[in-house]
Specification:
- The chain has two helices and no strands.
- The chain has a domain at 65-137.
- The chain has helices at 64-101, 106-137.
- It is mostly helical.
Length: 148
């Protein structure tokens, strides 16, 4: 591989210019190496190792008043679901009693009971999900027991 920086006649042995000294600021060119690419010149010195990571803050303590307020809010939000669950179960029991006493035919009473039980299951499942979400946020040992 020939040096493209100087004409071949002006070079000395091993690709060095006449006089045997490489030009200033540039390492000597060697024919047995392949030179690929370039590097940026560093404008500032290496900053050294990265700084230490900050210590993590202390674990936040759960306030009992705040947890009790969360429980109260969850109970307020679940109140319509619990009411719908109870109403559906009572209506299903009423339809069953009407069928047993002969006030309603079996097909109509059965259809009504199934609809009431599906509604009760949906409302009960939604209320249960709210309770589970509250329990998964905080361990049960740290949550105050509230009215259900």
């Amino acid at each position: 591989m020939a040096d493209v920086t100087a004409p071949a006649a002006a070079q000395g042995p091993a690709g060095q210019p006449p006089g045997g000294q490489p030009p200033r600021g540039r390492p000597p060119f060697r024919r047995d190496r392949v030179y690929v690419g370039w590097q940026y010149t560093l404008l500032s010195p290496d900053p050294g190792p990265p700084p230490r990571r900050p210590t993590p803050p202390e674990q936040e303590q759960l306030s009992p008043e705040w947890a009790a307020a969360q429980r109260r809010e969850e109970n307020l939000l679940n109140r319509p679901l619990k009411l719908a669950f109870c109403a559906a179960v009572v209506l299903a029991a009423g339809l069953l009693a009407a069928w047993v006493t002969g006030l309603l035919r079996g097909l109509l009473a059965g259809f009504g009971i199934v609809i009431c039980l599906v509604g009760a299951a949906a409302a009960g499942y939604a209320a249960w999900q709210g309770e589970q979400a509250l329990r998964s946020t905080w361990p049960a040992a740290r949550l105050p027991a509230g009215p259900r």
